[in-house]
Structures are given as structure tokens and as C-alpha cells.
Amino acid sequence: MATTITWPPRLAPTRLLTASTLPPAAPPAASPMAATSPISSSEPTLPYLSPELNGERLLVGANFASAGIGILNDTGVQFVNIIRMFQQYRYFEQYQARLAALIGPEQAQQVVNQALVLITVGGNDFVNNYYLVPFSARSRQYALPDYVNYLISEYRKLLERLYDLGARRVLVTGTGPLFGYFHFVLVPLLYSVGFTDSEVACCGQGPYNGIGLCTPASNLCQNRDVNVFWDAFHPSERANGFIVQTILNGSPDVISPMNLSTVLAMDNFS
């Protein structure tokens, strides 16, 4: 999965723009566009391919994310109709052209340059590639440390391409030490706010509901709001919401050197 979410904080207060690799501010001085736009700043960002994404809705943003994809193009070959990273970047270019037609090239470039871009990709390169089946092609090609180094080198290319497309503020999540951070830092915090189960997934089968995908035939928990994990791979909706709030407003003992709200506030006054 690759998700990019961007805030153009100087374009409109708390305006959300999702752009990238893409499907998710402190109040600055609002531009004329912010003053005249009828779109609510709390309106959810639409998928880029949504037929409803046109006109003023482009000012809210666009979500280019696709489940199942990874850093590598051969990740997710078992799925159909997924949108790989290179195609997501093409859509990002198209989005910028449409935005430029709406507000002018200079303003569109400013929006992209000042947006915060969130990209989440890399987990599927293990789950749906390296460990997909015993003796997978990639596991036979690379020892695990070499595979990690290969992914990092390919990820660098993706980030450089994102820079070439105008992104200047990029928040990278979902790979590397994040998993260790989740289990050793976030899980205890989740228990403190009402979660009671971090071992058994809400939907699945087998031990800990950790085998296979969530289907109509799967075991289903009684209250998804107390489970940290929805299925074998994904946090539950409530857990994800808590993680986002921690990224935005967490204290220095859980997110350092500062949370995202502080970064945005400092940037607005720079």
C-alpha cells in the first residue's frame, strides 16, 4: 500500500491535499483562493480516479494509494488492477496539470512545494513478495540483509522521483523500525486508552486469527474497538486513528524530536 497525504498549509487553513505515491496545520494567512473556496477544509480526500474529483474538489486533494503494491514492480503480481508506484506518479503529474488549469501554474507549483506528503510503502515487499511462498523468487535471489539493502536503494529512487515532481516535505512511514516501534511503544499506549487485545486479530482464522485474509467465512471479533489489529496485517480503524493522533500530537517520549503539528507550526512561521 502506498499512501500520500499532503497539507498545503499556506493555501488554506487545515486544508488537506493528498498527493503522491500516491489514498490522508496550523492556521497560516489564507490566500485569496482559501477565502473564496466553498469546499470545507474537513472534507475527506477523494481517490484520484473518483468521477467526483473535479473543479473545486481538486483543492481538497487527491489520493493515489493502491492496496497490494510495493516498492518493487513485481510485488503484488498475484493481484489484478493494482496501481503500481510508477502509475501513481503519472496520476500525480496529471493531478498537477489539472490543478494548474484550475488555479494557474505558479499557484499549483506552490501548493505542491508547500504540501506535506505522506508515503507508506514497503511492507508488501515482504508480505506479498519475499515471504509470499516458501522459496520465493526474491528469497532465492537475495539473502534477507541484501534484500533490505536492495529495497532501500529502490526506495531512494522513488523518493528522488517524488522530489523531481515537486514534493519538498515528505513523511515516510510503514517500513523498517516502525514495526518494532509499534509493538514496544504504541501497543502499551493503546492498552492505556481502552484496547484489550494486541495479539488476536479481529478478523481471520487459525491461531490468533493470523492465517489468510479476512473473508465472510472468517472468525470475527465481537467488538473491533478493543482489538489493536483488524486482520493479520493491518491495525484496526480505531488503532490507526490513535496512531495518527500520536504522530500529530504525541509527546516527545513517543515521537521525537517533535510531533508533526509542531513541525507544521514551525514551518508556518519560518
From TrEMBL:
Gene Ontology biological process terms, A to Z: lipid catabolic process
Keywords recorded for this protein, A-Z: Hydrolase, Lipid degradation, Lipid metabolism
InterPro entries per the UniProt record, alphabetical: GDSL, GDSL_Est/Lipase, SGNH_hydro_sf
Cited Gene3D superfamilies: SGNH hydrolase (3.40.50.1110)
GO molecular function terms noted in the UniProt entry: hydrolase activity, acting on ester bonds
Family: Belongs to the 'GDSL' lipolytic enzyme family.
Protein name: GDSL esterase/lipase
